[in-house]
Amino acid sequence: MNLSERQDGPAQQAQTLCAHFQGIAETRMRGLPFLNQQLAVEAVGFSAQIAGENAASGVLGVLISPWFMNLIWLPENRDTLLAQGASGEHQFGGQCLTFIGADGEDIGGYESCSLFSPMFEFADQDAARQTAEQVLALLRDAPERAPERPAISRRGLLFGRVSGGAQ
Asked: Which class in CATH covers the domain with range 9-159?
């Protein structure tokens, strides 16, 4: 299946990514010294999301592997997908993150933002999964608004006081 086939939704797209990277883990990456053997390929929290800067819709989730943890963005409008190797920024949860366009031979295009690589700081799959869930929770929360400062009245301005405070 290609990632651009959206009829099955985020769960199917996550399965497609996992199958693709599991194949890489079993072939090209097998036996390499920078793999954390305690980890497996897993998709975490893939669901519909809006990218804040332009209200673009798509699917956001985290992909864990024995060699990396990446935030994955699958824009709904495939015309906006970054070209392979090109970088671009998206805003989630008030954070501006840089993504790089990628193209899996058999799955099509996606965008990724590196969170961790290599993965030796994770003792096991649960620790990696918990970190991925925390990252997604932060990025899916609405950014906190700065507290509004009270307006300064003309009199307050002249006398160095803020309106609403002790006069």
From this structure: alpha beta
